[in-house]
Amino acid sequence: MMNHNVNLLSEAIPLQQLTLLFILVSALCGCQTGTVPLEDLNASIPPVEVDPRIFPLLAKAEEAFAENRLTTPLDDNAYLRYLQVLSIEPDNSKANQGIADIVEKYLAWSIENVQRARYRRARDFLNKARSVDENHPNIATVENMVNSYAEGKTQTFELSRASTERRDPETVSTLGEIAAEISKLQATIMIEAPSDATGRWIYQQLNEATRERVRARFEMTSRVRIHLYY
Q1: Between 20 and 30 A from 116 (CA), which of 106, 122, 143, 184?
Q2: CA distance 215 to 140
Q3: Angle at which helices 169-185 and 196-208 pack, to 10 degrees?
Q4: Rounded distance, CA 97 to CA 91, Å?
Q5: What's the CA gap between 24 and 47, in Å, rounded?
Q6: Which domains are present in the chain?
């Protein structure tokens, strides 16, 4: 009778499922079963293969970037090398970040030339930034800055660094007044602040006090100033 029941059970449940069931029951009961060392499990996972062409291309790109060979000469520049990496591995984070850095460097050069009243050169760098990534979020802000400086349509507000870093109520009130001016002029802005945290706090205060989202760029300096371009 006992053997007959065993036969019925083996016919009803495949052997593979019985084995799995035994392992689960053994684990629940605290029974010692054969375990696979972690090293063996890791060994069973095939390593991710990296195309051997990527690292040399990234190294060449970083070297070109450091030497300000951003998009020229045509056959040896940082942008070209990053594009070559992306043609091999489209989601390569270093290449994507490198392209964003190229845009930011061109925009920084554009701002430097605006401040020296070299508007044509500022526009040249702005156009180079756009040629690399026309959808970069900071291009519109810098473009408005260039046009505003060239037309004399700018305002600058300077705040106390100590008061701003303490988040004093009078600073909050002043930022509310600046926000009203931003809304009235439909201006874009550049924030100067001594730290990223302070810059973000200023932007948050301005953004909460305006009807529309403020378009802004941040520069880390020793002063606290807000530039309006309209």
Answers
A1: 184
A2: 8
A3: 60
A4: 11
A5: 30
A6: 53-150 (no CATH), 153-230 (3.30.1330.60)
In what order do the strands lie in the sheet containing 216-220? 154-159, 224-229, 188-193, 216-220
For residue range 148-184, what is the model confidence (pLDDT) as tens digits? Answer: 999 989 999 999 999 999 999 999 999 999 999 999 9
Rounded Cα gap, residues 177 and 23, in angstroms:
70
pLDDT tens for each residue of 106-122: 999 999 999 888 999 99
Residue type, 81: R
Question: In this structure, are residues 226 and 191 in contact, taking their beta carbons and an 8 Å threshold?
Answer: yes
- Three-class SS state of 168: coil
Residues 206 and 174 sit within 8 Å (Cβ to Cβ): no
Say how far apart CA 142 and CA 203 lie, in whole Å: 17
